[in-house]
UniProtKB/TrEMBL annotation:
Single GO cellular component term: extracellular region
GO biological process, one term: cellulose catabolic process
Superkingdom of origin organism: Bacteria
Record's keyword annotation contains Hydrolase: yes
UniProt keyword annotations, A-Z: Carbohydrate metabolism, Cellulose degradation, Glycosidase, Hydrolase, Polysaccharide degradation
Ranges annotated as biased composition (Low complexity): 501-511
Domain (Glycoside hydrolase family): residue spans on this chain: 87-328
Organism: Cohnella rhizosphaerae
Listed name of the protein: Glycoside hydrolase family 5 protein
Length: 516
């Protein structure tokens, strides 16, 4: 792209996707100097079987190398190679990128596996077919207006000693073998050389989730390793942002005493715990101490109620975020659900030491899976995306109205409900599910409730107290009303207002809350 800083979005694009992203104190800024948050999705490993291994239970199919071995055993080397070529081409296609942009995301996190991205032996060099696929995703993201985060999900030798980095011997061999570290440094230098002029690449995520706590004896080696990688990158690229993760699934930040570069984004991950401020306070404290922006780089694998709470939490605390994962098999908690092929259980049984399917049967099952990979063949789950952006239609548990306190996230007042007029469409979500912790017993809730929104047409976060303008006051083309009698809130948007107005209304719905 030769430094061109204009998003050439043919069918989409986001106004804040413009020019190189840079850390500026606690904020991220785009090429125009505007403060932005990254809001994105992650892919199962584009250079590995990330979208596939979650469909196989147990150790037999818990990582790419074991799935690859199974497929070779079932259909032979030649057909296995054909299977993987089709898998990589179909798992992420242009239609996926276009849909992600159209939904309002502004970034994607692209995980890489060194074993499949690099040729064997020395010198370190890319496999032409695999790096071409990464290049293609970068081109699509430029076209549709999505920043790209390159994430080394599986380093040479493996950085976790678990399935997520395709570990061969369940050891973090990156930190046990200097040759693996040297190879990883060389890999990042190659990536930086290749993408240094690509402003659409937001940054380099040096290492995914290094060293779980049972390998914490090696924690002292993480920062020196990061520093070696950064030095190699800066020899060829002084513009791209460096993204650093803590140890123990990116949750332990005790390794961060100081920043090793002046353009750093600090990343944590969040799964399966309470979406409240206390759970992320340690990261907020590090942000203040180190004067660096925050990125929740992986979170998901939960239900939509949790998403509504967790991703509002990140927004309220000005934390960039990325949802894991965009597409997987037979699910209702990712946006895209790949349909399970008939007979899939035969492959599962084989991995569990059951009967081996015939080559013809195995080929039929595997190729049906490939046929189901494209976006148009997936079952789309719009409720997942609605919960991430907290936009109508969405269910918001009462505990998750917001994290900035009464008078900003929620409150009570004497506003009167507004009758829905013609020309509006309405979406309703339950505010007070029976299991949610109530701020007050329902019977004591005032007959009407106050509505708050925290967004504005320029995309910057604002807090509006609409009680003064009465319930139903329009903000950015979106009307919010509350019905305490039924325990629901309503978001009504006018029809036919055009794409720009729709986007503004979507942002408003994505930052709105009611207390009923």
């Amino acid at each position: 792209m030769n430094g061109n800083e204009t998003v050439k979005a043919e069918r989409g694009g986001n106004n804040d996707v413009y020019g190189y992203v840079r850390a500026d104190g606690k904020a991220l800024r785009n090429g125009r100097g505007e403060e932005i948050l990254l809001r994105g999705v992650g892919f199962g490993q584009l250079a590995a079987a990330g979208g596939l291994y979650v469909a196989f239970p147990g150790r037999g199919g818990d990582r790419p190398r074991r799935i690859e071995r199974m497929i070779r055993e079932l259909v032979g080397e030649e057909k296995a190679a054909r299977f993987w070529a089709l898998y990589y081409d179909r798992y992420v296609a242009e239609a996926d990128i276009a849909r992600i942009a159209a939904e309002g995301f502004n970034s994607v996190r692209v995980p890489l596996l060194a074993r499949t991205l690099l040729e064997e032996g020395e010198p370190v060099r890319f496999r032409p077919d695999m790096i071409a696929r990464i290049d293609r995703v970068v081109r699509w993201c430029e076209r549709y207006g999505l920043y790209v985060i390159l994430d080394l999900h599986g380093a040479p030798g493996g950085q976790t000693g678990t399935n997520i980095d395709d570990s061969e011997r369940d050891l973090p061999e990156l930190f046990l073998d200097a040759e693996h570290r040297s190879r990883t440094v060389a890999l990042w230098r190659l990536l930086a050389e290749r993408y240094r002029d690509e402003w659409i690449v937001a940054g380099y995520d040096l290492l995914n989730e290094p060293l779980p706590e049972w390998f914490s004896a090696h924690n002292a080696g993480v920062m020196p390793f990061y520093e070696a990688v950064i030095a190699a990158i800066r020899e060829v690229d002084d513009r791209h942002m460096i993204i650093l993760e803590g140890v123990h699934w990116a949750t332990d930040w005790s390794i961060f005493d100081k920043l090793p570069d002046d353009n750093v984004l600090l990343q944590f991950h969040k799964y399966w715990n309470a979406p409240d401020t206390a759970s992320i306070q340690v990261y907020l404290d590090h942000r203040d101490r180190l004067n660096a922006p925050l990125f929740m780089g992986e979170g998901g694998e939960n239900n939509k109620d949790w998403y509504a709470g967790a991703f509002r939490l990140f927004e309220d605390h000005d934390i960039s975020w990325n949802f894991w994962t965009w597409k997987k098999m037979d699910t209702d908690n990712s946006p895209c659900s790949i349909r399970r092929p008939d007979g899939w259980e035969l492959l599962v049984r084989y991995l569990e030491d059951g009967e081996k399917p015939s080559p013809d049967e195995a080929e039929r099952i595997l190729w049906e899976y490939l046929d189901n990979l494209p976006l148009e063949r997936c079952d789309y789950e719009p409720g997942v995306v609605s919960s991430l952006f907290v936009r109508a239609p969405v269910r918001i548990p009462a505990a998750f109205y917001g994290y900035t306190g009464e008078g900003a996230s929620y409150g009570f007042g004497g506003a009167q409900p507004e009758r829905r007029g013609s020309g509006e469409r309405t979406a309703i979500g339950a505010c007070c599910p029976p299991w949610a912790p109530a701020r007050e017993p329902r019977a004591s809730v005032p007959p009407t409730a106050r509505i708050f929104a925290s967004s504005s047409p320029d995309g910057r976060r604002r807090t509006f107290n609409t009680a003064a303008a009465r319930n139903g006051k329009r903000r950015n083309g979106c009307t919010w009303r509350c019905s305490p009698a039924t325990g629901s809130h309503t978001a009504a948007r006018p029809r036919g207002r055009g794409r720009q107005r729709t986007a503004a209304a979507r942002r408003t719905a994505g930052r709105s809350a009611c207390a009923c």
